[in-house]
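Recap slide: Integrase core domain-containing protein, sequence and predicted structure.
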Amino acid sequence: MYNKLILFSFLLGVVPHVIRADLGVEYALMAPTQIFFRENHDYIRAGPLSWCYGSSTSNQPIEAWWSLLRKYKSQFWIELFTVMEKAGEWNYFDHIDRECLIFIFMPLLIKELNEFRLEWNTHRIRYDAKSRCPSGCPDNNYFLPELNNTQNFGFNVNEEDYIYVYENYCNDPSLGEYITLQRENELNNIVKFILDNIGNSKVNITIITIARKIYYILRTYLHQV
C-alpha cells in the first residue's frame, strides 16, 4: 500500500492537504511521507500538521465502504481460495502455487475491483443536510470541485522529494511486478498448450470454474517438470 501511495502521489502530482488516520501499523511509513511531501508548502497545515491521528470509531464512512467491498466482491474470493486451500489445490508456502494463482486469478481480481471502483465512483450520492460530505457523483466531485462551490485542496509534490523517497524506500524491482514478463510469456505458452489439449483453445478463462480447472492443470504440470 505504501508503494502505491508514492506512485499515485507522483502520477497525480498532488498529495492531500491533510490526512486523518487511526494508529494502525500500516501508516508507519505513510505518515512521515505525507509530512515530508508537505513540509515546504506555504499553508497553515503544512509539515507535521498535514497528518493527524484519531480514533477508528470516527472512520465510519470508509469502514462502511470496506464492508460493501467485502460483501459484493472480496468475500466470494476469500471463500473460493479457502475452499481451494482445504482441497489441497493451493499452498501459500509453495512458490509454484503462488505463481500459478497470481497468473490465473489476478486478471479476474483486477477486473472485479475495477468494476466496483467504476460503479462506486459514478454512482450519485444523495443530498443530506446533516452531512458535511458533498452530494453528487464522486468522480465529478473530485475532478470538478467547483460544482460544489469548493476547490482542489491537493498540493503539488516536489519531484526531487518524490525521487528521494522512491529511491530510498520503494526502489525494489520485485515490487513492480508480480511475475516477470519472461515468466508470464512462459506461462502463457503452457496455458495455450493446455487449452489446445483439452479440445478448445478458445475457452473463456474469465469463467471462474474454468479458471480454477486451468489453474489446477497448470500447477500440476509445473510441479512435475
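The longest strand covers residues 19-21.
The beta strands are 14-15, 19-21, 51-53, 155-156.
(End of recap.)
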